[in-house]
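Listing S7. Sequence submitted for prediction.
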Amino acid sequence: MTDNNPIQASRIQPTAKTTSIPAGPPPRLTTLIFLSALSVLPVNMILPSLPRIAAAFHADYALVNLSVAGYTIVTAMIEIVAGAMSDRYGRRPVALIAVSIFIIASIGCALATNIGTFLVFRALQASIGACFSVALVVVKETSGERGAASRIGYVSMGWAIAPMVGPMFGGLLDELFGWRAIFIVLAILGAAILALSIRELRETSTHASKPKANYLASYAQLLSSARFWAYTLCMACSMGTLYIFLGGAPLAFSQSFGGSSATLGFYMGMVPAGFILGSYLAGRYASRNALSTVLIVARLFTCIGLLAGLVLSMSGAAHILAFFGPCMFIGIGNGLTMPAGNTGVLSVRPDLAGTAAGLSAAMRLVGGALIGSVAGLFLARSGTIHALFVMMLISALLALLAAFYAAFVDRSMSRTVS
């Protein structure tokens, strides 16, 4: 496996026809935060309404649940395609088209009269996932490498807050106006983001309009990069740790502590709260350190926290905070990891930044879900707190190994350049 030095790559790439970049300042950070937050808000906003949607369409609950699980799969596919399209046609048109489709799809969901129509429009809603990659790339192309990690840290806070408030906001709308109001509100939010993007989002790519772009070759070039794999695997294993927690915490909670669902939801909120804290720390300090250093520190945070949790559980600590307190370090570690990891991925080939963002996002999503599923097989047999901490710690250690590998690759590249 070889690596592509971004400095060397820029010298050997054939000259491509480029488009002129409109004069004007880069988009405000708040615009990118809103754009990326909208890409994750619809994922779980409808969770409280699934039973009512099933009743409205006289459909099986498992079929309606496809609007959540299927949405995630379609999002992963869209991110792969949209990233490459943004390299060819530019960031701005891809973002504007994605938001426009999202608005139409949201209206379609609100007006759907049967489950088939609803699921089709729900799948089209996933087009907003393209804005995730676009927001990342725009940050990278308007900042230096370390500056990008810092700004992505602040943008990541929006990614964390949106899924936290989504179910609560969706449940409130359902209770007051019915489940269709959720999609009407999403359409209104999409229209507001579209207007903001038209006004502020400038084209940042200098590699757009490649009439003979070979998408498969682009993916192959990225997949041959050791740096791409190192940073992507680190993020995938980090997400795997989170998925293990999300799948195993309810089972461990019910067996060891009991209590209401509201209590469980409150304490599980400590992890996204930790993610917000980690993202804030990345925003403050990532620009002062090498990306691989940030990754190693982030993964050590998570490993130390989970190891402390395992020790506490084995020592017989019965307080609920002895379980959820150490798990908060999953969020802190991931909040630090994602900005540095995404910046590292985008730096592999600057001329393929969009492709890299989309491909890495899809691999991270699938890899994390696979790790969570494998761990779930073991936890189904033994849903104890000990077993849950062991599974999470294994995934966290794999992420730490990937972080050390990223540091090794970066050091080797620096020696080659010098």
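Caption to Listing S7: primary sequence and predicted structure tokens for the chain studied. The chain has a mean pLDDT of 82. The longest helix spans residues 145-177.
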